[in-house]
Design brief:
two-stranded antiparallel ribbon, mainly alpha
Length: 220
């Protein structure tokens, strides 16, 4: 059953979900939402934040792996490649290894996020179906429920857009590294990036209920 996916999302009534680039993310992550966030909705937002905020330093999330030093999410646009090339290092290989590690970190985050998105899509389906059987609702409750479903879908769409952007950023960084400091290590980084790009392509238009690991295997 198709639940959430990376295709352009629409509501059950045909209303398009706002464009990921223009959507006001602050409203999706507000502290005192109405109705309150469920545990799954909080986890969805926590995992999404690592993809959606390019300047975020992830240090206090219970859903993301702890590391010796904070994870700095890849900067937007050419700044990532610029910073990579300027990074102090006694060996040029260090920059390739850093790029490879950043790609691998993003790739490891994909399946956990879409596992949660899958669960949330099912819960939202139950939420929408239940509205037909509720005899009495307080003013605004129906609208709040439907708006929350749209918000949850918008988060998934925004993460899909962010993944495509990340892949382009990493591709540009690798190409610039090869020009600046050619190395055989670029081949290994290229393999990691190709796997990341293949997994993203497999997500487009595919149901989240088909796990990314399986999609990745099929793409090889």
């Amino acid at each position: 059953m198709a639940l959430a996916a990376c295709s352009a999302p629409r509501s059950d009534f045909g209303r398009p979900i706002p464009d990921a680039e223009a959507y006001p993310f602050a409203s999706l992550f507000k502290r005192d939402p109405i109705p309150p966030f469920t545990d799954t909705e909080r986890e969805l937002r926590d995992r999404a934040w690592a993809f959606l905020d390019p300047e975020a330093t992830i240090t206090d999330s219970p859903y993301l792996p702890r590391t010796a030093e904070p994870i700095r999410v890849a900067e937007a646009g050419p700044a990532y490649a610029d910073n990579l090339l300027k990074m102090p290092a006694r060996s040029s290989e260090v920059r390739y290894e850093r790029l490879k590690a950043d790609i691998a970190t993003d790739r490891q985050r994909i399946e956990p996020f879409f596992d949660v998105a899958d669960r949330q899509a099912e819960l939202d389906r139950v939420r929408q179906q239940s509205l037909a059987y509720i005899s009495v609702l307080q003013p605004g409750e129906r609208q709040h429920a439907l708006a929350r479903v749209a918000d949850n879908r918008a988060i998934v769409a925004a993460v899909c857009a962010a993944l495509l952007k990340r892949a382009r950023i990493y591709r540009t960084a690798l190409e610039r590294l090869v020009v600046a400091t050619p190395s055989e290590t670029a081949v290994a980084v290229e393999r990691t990036l190709l796997a990341f790009e293949a997994e993203i392509r497999a997500l487009e238009g595919a149901a989240v209920s088909v796990r990314p690991a399986r999609r990745m295997s099929a793409a090889r």
